[in-house]
Amino acid sequence: MVPRLPGIIGCEMPDDRPLDDRKAAILRAVVQEYIETAQPVGSAHVTRAGNLGVSPATVRNEMAVLEREGYLVHPHTSAGRIPTDKGYRFFVDHMSAPGSLRPGQRLQVQEFFARAHGQLEQRLHDTTRLLSSLTHYAALVVAPPHEDATIRSVQLVSLGPRTALVVAVLSNGVVEKATLELDAQMGEARVAAAGAHLAAHVTSRTLVDDSAVPSSGDPATDQLVAAARQALTDSHGQDAAQVFVGGASQMAATFDAVETVREVLAILEQQYVLVSLLRQALGTEGLSVAIGVEHGVQSLAECSIIVAPYMVEGAPAGTVGVLGPTRMNYPEAMAAVAIVSQRLGRHLSDS
User: Fold this and answer.
1) pLDDT tens digit string along 259-306?
2) What 8-state DSSP symbol labels residue 94?
3) Pairing outcome for strands 138-142 and 163-170
4) 222: three-class secondary structure by DSSP
């Protein structure tokens, strides 16, 4: 069974009595057909596709019961029905396992991570494009938080008489850079000395570790070291909760209503909303799925979110997810999120 997102604000589907096998088979057939065609599903199709061994009249009666119990709904006057959020939830909760990627898609993932390189930010941005190309939905990746990342290396470089650049490479792959505007002229020798002193005493610390650095014996050098540390702390605070988004245009194309498209795109531009949604998956095992209003954002009521944490060196580091319509291909999207989150974590652990 696939878990809901933990801690969701909003309503959960009520726990009704279990569906019998025939109703469950009919509901699965309706969901699968509607995902495939986006057209209301009639009893005739379910009778042919479901291999139920019963008449269309029996299927119609069972579909009417499913409608009364809130799993299906008539979208208009047609004879067909479509799933409700409760119907999708039943479908997802009773999947034995996520689907699987096609051989070509698996090869695409393998080749992507084999050649991924560069700064972490670029790799995470490229990962969203990979995931969006696999699912045709909007893909989102939350960068690893910096609080627990340690400094692998740090350099201080003179850019001019009153300007220097401090660069720190963190254990999670993030590269922090900040420019220092100095009150007095600093020669290259003093900048080099400050850089060496900085590296000797902050390597293996976190950016938020404010423990004192021993004096170098030269007040000007100590002042430069302090300025570099402050600049790194400030740059960390600016993007501590960074989320990368890819495939927004593909996501928009899945909706017919212009107003829905506008609302979805607006949410995709609000990093704090996306981070709060996706980070709720941290600490869980495997995939989590929020359908419709389960995620608590009313403007995304026609959307579902599939998320999974990715692990770096055995610890939760960030979140991978897709945002799509409630009529998404759940087995395929869940398979894509699962494999990309696993491969991304492995890739960052080996970096």
Assistant:
1) 677 677 777 766 666 767 665 544 456 788 989 888 777 777 888 889
2) T
3) unpaired
4) helix
Q: Which of 124, 134, 184, 188 is nearest to 156 (CA)?
A: 188
* Strand intervals (E) in the chain: 72-73, 82-83, 138-142, 151-160, 163-170, 175-181, 243-246, 288-291, 303-312, 315-325
Amino acid in position 166: V
Contact 320, 337 (CB under 8 A): yes
Radius of gyration of the chain (CA): 26
Distant-in-sequence, close-in-space partners of 316: CB < 8 Å, separation ≥ 6: 282, 283, 309, 310
What is the tens place of the pLDDT at every residue in 158-206?
Answer: 888 888 899 988 776 677 888 888 877 788 888 899 999 999 999 988 8
pTM of the model: 0.74
What is the number of residues in the chain? Answer: 351
Judge contact between 75 and 40, C-beta under 8 A: yes
Model confidence over 315-326: pLDDT tens digits? 778 889 998 889
85-93 vs 330-350: helix axis angle to the nearest 10?
Answer: 60
CA end-to-end distance (rounded Å), the chain: 33
Phi, psi of 315, deg, nearest 5: -120, 145
Report CA-CA distances (Å) from 189 to 106, 154, 181, 254: 52, 17, 17, 59
